[in-house]
C-alpha cells in the first residue's frame, strides 16, 4: 500500500499584535508527541514534549475546542464517527490556560 504522509498542523494562541505566541501546540503523531512551546518578545522558549498520554493518535478522529471570551471551536479530520471522539480542550483565563485530553489535565 502507498505510504500516507504524516498529518502536520499546529495551533497558536496569540496575544496582541506583537507576534507573541502564548501557546504553540504541534501534534506529531508519527513521533507520538505533542510539541509545546511559547514565543515571547520574539524568542522561542524551550520545547516540551513529555505527556502522561498522547490523545492524538494516527487514524483516530479528535476534536479541538477552545473557550474564553467569544469562544471558539475547530475540528480536524474526517466527519466524526457515531461514538464521541477524544477531546482536547484548551481552557483560557486572563493570565493562564489549561489543556485537557478526554477530561484529564495534560498540562
TrEMBL record:
Superkingdom assignment: Eukaryota
Origin species: Nothoprocta ornata
UniProt-recorded name of the protein: Galectin
Pro residues composition bias: residue spans: 78-87
Region (Disordered): 29-90
One Gene Ontology molecular-function label: carbohydrate binding
PROSITE patterns named in the record: GALECTIN (PS51304)
Keywords tagged on the record: Lectin, Repeat
Domain Galectin: 1-107
